[in-house]
Design a protein that fits this description.
The protein has helices at residues 7-15, 26-31, 47-50, and strands at 19-22, 38-39, 59-62. By secondary structure, the chain is α/β, with parallel strands linked by helices. Strand 1, helix 2 (26-31) and strand 2 (38-39) form a beta-alpha-beta unit. 6% of the residues are buried.
Length: 67
């Protein structure tokens, strides 16, 4: 389910243990990323790469890859 949140909501969710994922290409992630975010590039996302996420915790995904 897609839900758009603002900065305050993001900070609150992360402080409660939500996982922050940036689904950006690695070069964009390396240039600048949100503090505490992990990188799982959308075009490389598989069941195997997503296995690093804790299934019992909420996941917040940031993606700006429109290609």
């Amino acid at each position: 389910m897609r839900t758009i949140i603002d900065r305050r909501q993001l900070q609150e969710l992360v402080s409660q243990g939500a996982q922050l994922v940036e689904a950006l290409p690695a070069v964009d992630y390396n240039d600048a990323h949100l503090p505490g975010a992990i990188n799982l590039p959308l075009k490389q996302l598989t069941r195997h790469t997503a296995a690093s996420l804790e299934r019992s915790l909420p996941v917040i995904v940031y993606c700006n890859d429109f290609q």
